[in-house]
From TrEMBL:
Primary localization class, coarse: mitochondrion
Subcellular location(s) of the protein: Mitochondrion
Annotated source species: Fistulifera solaris (Oleaginous diatom)
UniProt-listed InterPro entries: ATP12_ATP_synth-F1-assembly (IPR011419), ATP12_ATP_synth-F1-assembly_N (IPR042272), ATP12_ortho_dom_sf (IPR023335)
Similarity-based family: Belongs to the ATP12 family.
Name of the protein in its database record: ATP synthase mitochondrial F1 complex assembly factor 2
The keyword Flavoprotein is annotated on this UniProt entry: no
Amino acid composition bias (Polar residues), ranges on this chain: 77-92
Protein keywords: Chaperone, Mitochondrion, Transit peptide
Gene Ontology BP, a term: mitochondrial proton-transporting ATP synthase complex assembly
Chain intervals for the UniProt region annotation (Disordered): 70-94
Any one annotated GO CC term: mitochondrion
Source superkingdom: Eukaryota
Length: 363
């Protein structure tokens, strides 16, 4: 058993990290995950063996300062075993940009969500070392994060990799952090616009008819009422627009934009454009996973991050799917895989924002 070279992970999020590790172990033990991975003829970085023994965390300069040392001391850095993209491209998403040090410095400096001013005295940055060699991102940037707790959560992911293969799908938190440094910091407009477009067809704003489809309407009310109430209060009293009807009419309704008040739309726009790269990446991941910008905002700004909150978010995001499963049964190898994968991805995004908050916004 490989160990992280420190006696204990910081206490403030130890329980959350432990729950996250349990999910990763569950995904490894899943017959679905094993089958889907073994059926592919994996080559190259996908079949990279674990080449390191020790994983530890050390302090370091911020990313934009550490870059100056990278070329001078390149041999002491550990290249990322995770490929940046396919066919020698910068990334699979195609949104990579040339590195602008000034932009990277601005977007990677922590800000309280909703504020455009960076936190003062951001001196504590940390990196992961594999056998005493600091790790780089897939695009070759120094892997540095502004949270010790986040660094230990990342180290836990690297430490969980088994001997026979390094599996990037088992490191969703590493994926989010690398995305923040390599992609979001360079292409903020892409991520901002992609998040905002979900507001037009937000999942939690399509309600079943309370007379014709009472059962699913009750589930929606139970899962979504707190989100709607919180969003209304957060936006200054402007409730989200909703569409209501039976299943057939919803297909037509989703072709039109929801009737959100302009004030609510502006509040969402202002929040998204205030976020640093870390929180923007977390919000983007939560929005994509839940198909709801409003639910993602609720999760991002919530100060009580826990496994219970993630479970409730999963329930809110999958009301219709779970209703159909309860009526028609579960398809093994599809529904259970979707549940597990969505839970892991949402846990990773929640853990990212909770780690940042624990070390920087706790007061």
């Amino acid at each position: 058993m490989y160990i992280i070279t420190r006696d204990s992970i910081p206490r403030n999020l130890r329980r959350c990290i432990a729950g996250y590790e349990a999910l990763l172990r569950a995904s490894k033990q899943s017959s679905i995950t094993r089958r889907s991975f073994s059926e592919r003829k994996a080559t190259g970085p996908e079949r990279r063996r674990r080449f390191y023994v020790h994983v530890d965390v050390v302090s370091c300069p911020p990313v934009w300062e550490e870059r100056n040392k990278l070329h001078k001391d390149n041999k002491s850095m550990q290249e990322s075993p995770i490929s940046a993209g396919v066919d020698n491209t910068d990334s699979a998403s195609g949104v990579a940009r040339g590195v602008d040090k000034q932009q990277q410095s601005h977007t990677l400096q922590l800000r309280v969500p909703g504020s455009h001013e960076p936190l003062k005295n951001q001196l504590n940055w940390f990196t992961i070392r594999l056998d005493e060699r600091p790790l780089k991102t897939p695009l070759g940037h120094p892997l540095a994060v502004p949270s010790e707790t986040l660094a230990y959560a990342l180290a836990a992911e690297w430490n969980c990799q088994v001997v026979d293969v390094i599996n990037p799908t088992q490191m969703p938190l590493m994926t989010l952090v690398a995305t923040s440094i390599d992609q979001t910091a360079q292409a903020t407009d892409f991520y901002q616009n992609n998040i905002l477009r979900y507001l037009r067809t937000d999942t939690v704003c399509y309600w079943a008819d309370p007379m014709e489809e009472r059962s699913i309407h009750r589930r929606q009310q139970s899962a979504w009422k707190d989100v709607h109430a919180w969003i209304t209060e957060w936006s200054g009293g402007y409730a989200p627009g909703v569409a209501m009807g039976h299943a057939e009419s919803m297909l037509m309704a989703k072709q039109k934009q929801l009737p959100h008040p302009p004030q609510l739309q502006q509040a969402c726009h202002n929040l998204v454009h205030s976020l640093d790269a870390w929180h923007l990446t977390a919000l983007h991941a939560m929005t994509i996973e839940t198909k709801s910008m409003l639910l993602a905002i609720f999760l991002l700004l919530s100060k009580s991050g826990s496994i219970k909150d993630v479970a409730a978010a999963m329930e809110a995001a999958r009301v219709e799917e779970e209703f159909n499963i309860s009526n028609w049964g579960l398809v093994e190898g599809q529904h259970d895989y979707d549940r597990l994968n969505a839970s892991i991805q949402l846990h990773a995004a929640m853990l990212l924002k909770d780690c940042l908050a624990a070390d920087n916004f706790s007061s």
